[in-house]
Design a protein that fits this description.
Elements (H helix, E strand, L loop, with lengths): L2 E4 L9 H13 L14 H5 L4 H14 L2 E5 L5 H12 L4 E6 L6 H4 L6 E6 L2 H17 L4
Parallel strand pairs: 1-2, 2-3, 3-4
Helix pairs in contact: 1-6
Length: about 140
């Protein structure tokens, strides 16, 4: 499957190691992740070379063509919120992951829309287990 990975870039990169863990889980499970580069430590330097409208068009296109979106939302990001809303409006399954104990927007934690999932995790193992369950359900039923 084609999985769009979404994470904070300009909002802060303190969770970059977690982003790498998530993209590795998705890739190791055999999925295509067109945004895997977002997990790399140098993404800010690379991002500076791309014009804002090009990012918008490219990323919107990727969301339109993905089978699901996985977002790490521990660090708030306007772009991530936009991508989540776009995916949900397109009826794409969305998984929002965040670290337990971190304050996350009530717009996310209170979301009961069909296809919207949340995963609060305490460590990388919980993150891996939760994502693998989501991916398994997604593979067996494209309408989760």
């Amino acid at each position: 499957m084609n999985i769009y990975f979404s994470c904070s870039i300009t909002g802060g990169r303190q969770d970059q190691e977690i982003y790498q863990i998530i993209t590795n889980i998705l890739l190791d499970a055999g999925h295509v992740v067109p945004t895997a580069h977002l997990a790399k430590p140098n993404v800010i330097d690379v991002d500076k070379l791309v014009q804002p409208q090009d990012v918008f068009l490219r990323d919107s296109n990727w969301v339109h063509h993905c089978d699901a979106l996985v977002a790490e939302v521990t660090t708030p990001s306007h772009g991530v919120g936009y991508e989540i809303a776009l995916a949900l409006s397109l009826k794409k399954p969305v998984m929002c992951c965040y670290q337990k104990g971190v304050r996350v927007s009530k717009m996310l934690t209170g979301n009961t829309m069909p296809g919207f999932h949340q995963l609060a995790y305490a460590n990388p193992q919980e993150l891996r287990e939760g994502l693998l369950i989501f991916l398994k359900e997604l593979s067996s039923n494209q309408t989760i």
